[in-house]
Amino acid sequence: VTERWIGRSLRQPDANSKLTGEHRYASDLDVPGMLVGLILRSDVAHARIHRVDLERARAVPGVVAMIGPADLGSPIPRFGALSPDQPVLADGEVRFHGEPLAAVAAVDEASAREALEAIVVDLEELPAVASLDDALRAEPHVLHECRFAWGEPAGDAAIVLEHEYEAHAAQHVSIEPHACIASWDRRGLTIWAGTQHPFVVRRVLADTFKLPLARVRVLALPVGGAFGAKGYPKLEPIVALLSRAAGQPVGVRASLRESFHITRGAGARVAVRTALDDAGRLCSQEIEADFLAGAYADMAPRVVEKSAYLACGPYRTPAARIVARAIASNTAPSTAFRGFGAPQFTWALESQMDELARMVGQDPLEFRLRNLCEPGELVLPDQTPCDGRWHEALTRAAEAVGYRQPRPPGRGVGVAIAIKYPTPASTSVAIVRLHADASATVQIGTTELGQGSRIAMAQIAAEALGIATDDVSVPDPDTASTPFDFATAASRSTTLAGTAVLAACADVHRQLEALAEEALGVAARADAQAGGVAMADGRRLSYVELLALAFGADQGEVVGRGTYRGARADLPLGGPAPFWEVCAAASEIEVDEATGAIRVVRQVVASDVGRAINPAATQGQDLGAAMMGLGQTLAEEVRYDERGRLLTADLERYRIPATPDLPIQFESILIENGDGPGPFGAKGVGESGIMAIGPSVGNALRAASGVRVRRLPLTPERVWRALSQARQPTASVVR
Amino acid sequence: MTFTLRMTVNDRPVELEVAHDEVLLDVLRTRLDLKGAKRSCGIAECGACTVLIDRQPVSSCCTLAWEARERRVDTVEGLARSGELDPLQSAFAEHRALQCGYCTPGMLMSAVALLDETPAPTADEVRRGLRGTLCRCTGYRGIVEAVVAVGLVGDDDV
Q: Which chain B residues are Cβ-neighbours of A22 within 8 angstroms?
C-alpha cells in the first residue's frame, strides 16, 4: 500500500498567516471589554512582608480593580500542577525575586502602570538561598527525593572512575512572553492563553478556585514558543482573580523581562561513579544528583524523578544506585524544560563515558557502541526493551561529521547519545467528524507550538480516511468542545495523541460500514484508498453518497471517537515507556587557544523517529532543539547576585544564539525503520535534539585541546582558564 | 502632550494624534491594528518588532513614533498586498524558516532590509546581516537558506 500523505513535508496550514503578520497570538488578541492587567513583582528574593498597601493605587483614575494579599483571604489561594503550594500572591513572605505582590486591572496600560507605582510595599529583606552551595550548606529544604536501584554494584571491578559534573540553569526564552486573558462571570471562568496544556490549566484552576471542570473553559491559542515554560499554570490564576475582581475580562501580557522572572529550568550537580570490567564493559553506575529547584514545586519533583530514572542512559547497565533530589531555593520555580532533566544527566553521563573510554584506551565512539543496548535488550529492569537502532543513530551522526578524519590542531570532534521517554500511562481522546462533503474536522487537545502538530494530525487523518489534507481542519483546542488530552509535552503528541486520531478515524469507518449495511442490506467495508465503502455485492459508495443516503442531502455527519490510554504498571511514573526517544549528537569544534572561544563548525543530530509523518517538521524540531542546546552549552546561564536577585533577566545578559552561531554544517538525520508504536510506525521526537549537545561539544573540546571541563556552560573564560591550567605542569582538569 | 503624526505606512498615508512618548510599535499595533510587528524584549535586542523607516530597519519598540513623521514606514503587512505571498515569504515557507512564527514578521523585515543592501547575499552575509533578529524555534538554518535562495533568484532576474 502506498501512502499518499505520510512522509511528506507539507507546510503548516497556518504558515501563510504567520508570514503575512495576520496570525493572532494570545499577545495580540483583544476580547471585548478587556482591561489591561499588570502585576507588581518583588524586587528582592526573600523577605518578610510587612505591608502591601493599595489605598493610593486604587484611587488612580482608570483603575477598575486591584488585588493585594488582604483581598484574597488567609491563606491565599494556592496552585500547582503537582502540588498546590504556590500562592497566587506572595503569602506573608516573598520567596523569590519576581514573586507577585499585587495586581491591577485598568482601562489602559498607562493607568495600570501608574497604579503599580502608587502601591506602598514594606518588605524586610532576609538572606536568600540561590545556589546549590548555599542550599546544601544549611539544612536543605528537599522538595523531592527519589531512589532507583537494581543489580549489585561490583565490589572489585577492574576500573572505577568517579567525577562530579555540573549543568547550569537555563531559561526558555520564548520570543513571545507569557500572555493570558481571563473572563470570570456567573457562567464560569474562561481563559484564553498561549498554553501547551489546556487541560492541565483547566484542572489546576478548577482545583484552586473550587470550580467544576465543566465551568472552566480554556482556549489554547497558538503559542509563540513554549519549550516547557507555558504548560503548567503561570499567569492564569492571578489573571482569573483580577477578572473576578473587575467583573470584566482582563488580559496580562508579560514583558520578556517578566517572563525571565516567572520560571526557568533547573541546574543540577551530578556525581557519577562508574565501574568497568577489564574489557571496558559497564558493570555499575552510582549516580547522585542535586537539582536546584525554585521556591515552589511547579514541575521540579517530576523533572528530577523522570530524568533520574534514566540517569544511566541508553547503555546496558547491570547494576545501578541512583539518588536524586530537588532542593528548594529562593529562585523562580523551575518547571519543565525541553529534555525534562535529561540534558543535565546526559552532560554528566556522556562526559564520564568519554573519560572512561580514554582511561581504558578505547575510542570513545567504539566504547559507546560496545555498551549501547541492542534492539530487544532491557534498558531498565521490567521496562520496555530497546525499541530502535541506537547504534545506527550514533554511527551515522559520527560519520556525518567525518569522525575518523584527521584534523588540524585546535579542532576536534565529539559524540554523545541520550535517551528519554514520554510520561507513561497518559490519555488522549480524539474526535474526528466526517462531514457531508467528505471533509473532516479533527478535534484533538494537542496544541500548536510551531512544531507543526496541525499538519501532522491532518496528515494522519487524511491518510486514514483517504481524503486530502486540505480537506482536514484541526482547530485549536478549546476545553469546552475538544476532548481530553494529557499534555503537549515529552514528544508524545504525534505518536500518542496521533494514535487517538487514528482510532477515531477507524471509528468513523466502522460507523460508515454500519450505515451502509443498514441502508443497502449487504455487508460493507470501508475503503480509505477509494474514499468510500465497498459493498459485498460489488457496489461502491463514496463518503458523500453514503452520508446523503444515510442522513439526507446536505445533512448529517459521522462523529468518530478514539482514545489512547497508556499502559499502566507498578513501575516508576506509573507504567512502561510507550517508546524510547533517542538522539545522538556529533560536533566538530574549533577552539581559539588565545581566548578560549569555541566555534562549532559542524553539528549533527540523529534521531530514531520510527517514521517521520512530516520529515521537514521533524527535522525542524531536532535542529531547533540542537541550536537551543548549543546556546546552553556555550553561553546561556541563569545567574543570581548574592541576595538571590536574578541578574540575567534580559537578552543583553542572557544571550541566546543568533544567526552567526549557525554551524557551517548543521544537519538532522532521521533514522526511520517504522518500528514505533504510533501512527504508521512513528516514535516521538521534538525534545531529543537538545539532550546530547552539551557533552558532544564538551567531548569535542577534550579532543581538540586535551582539556576536560566538567561544568557548563563552556564560556570562553571557563575554557581559557582550563587551557591555561593545562599548560601548567600539575593540573589538567577544571571545574 | 500630543502631536499630529503624518507618515506613510505600507504606501498608505496616515494621520494620527499621538503622544510624544509613544513608541512606533504601539502606534502600529494599537492605533492602526497592524499587529504583525511583535512585542517581546522591549530593549531592541530581539528584533521581533522590526519595521522599516525609509527602508532602514528599526526596532519599533524603542523608536518614538515622532521619528517616523513625514517618513515611509513598511511593515510585514505590506509584503503580500496582492494576496499572494511575495518571493521572500514563499522562500520562508519553502525552506521551513518558521515554526511558532512569532519572530517571523521581524525576521522578514530584517531580511528585506538586508536584500535591499545586498541583493544576492552569501550565507555568511546573511548570518551577519540577520544577527539582530532572534528565533528560538528553527535553529536558523532554514532562514539563512531562504534568504540566500531569494537573493540568487533576484540576481538571475537582473
A: 36, 77
- CB A278, CB A158: distance < 8 Å: yes
Asked if A478 and A217 count as a contact pair (C-beta separation under 8 A), the reply is yes
> Does B37 contact chain A (CB < 8 Å)?
yes
User: Which residues of chain A have a CB within 8 Å of the CB of B44?
Assistant: none
* B98 within 8 A of B138, measured Cβ to Cβ: yes
- In this predicted structure, what is the pLDDT of residue A138? 81
Longest dimension (CA), chain A: 91
Query: Distance between terminal CA atoms of chain A?
Result: 56
Q: For residue A315, give the DSSP letter.
A: B
The whole-number average pLDDT for the span A267-289 is: 97
Q: Which three cell numbers stand for residue A68?
A: 493585594
Closest by CA position to A162, among listed A268, A291, A278, A271: A271
| Minimal CA separation from A34 to chain B, in Å | 14
A177-233 pLDDT, tens digit per residue, is 999 999 999 999 999 999 999 999 999 999 999 999 999 999 999 999 999 999 999
CB-based contact (8 Å) between B91 and chain A?
no
Q: What is the pLDDT of residues A698-717, one digit of tens each?
A: 999 999 999 999 999 999 99
* Chain B CA closest to residue A223: B100
Nearest CA-CA distance, residue B93 and chain A, Å:
7
Task: Give the ipTM of the model, two decimals please.
Answer: 0.97
| SS3 letters across A559-582 | EEEEEEECCCCCCHHHCCCCCCEE
- Going across the sheet that includes A524-527, the strands are A524-527, A532-535, A540-542
pTM: 0.97
- Calpha distance A282→A357 (Å, rounded): 11
Q: Which positions in chain B touch A616 (Cβ < 8 Å)?
A: 96
Residue A75: asked if its preceding bond is cis (omega within 30°), the reply is yes
CB atoms closer than 10 angstroms to residue A140 = 17
Rg of the Cα atoms in chain B: 15
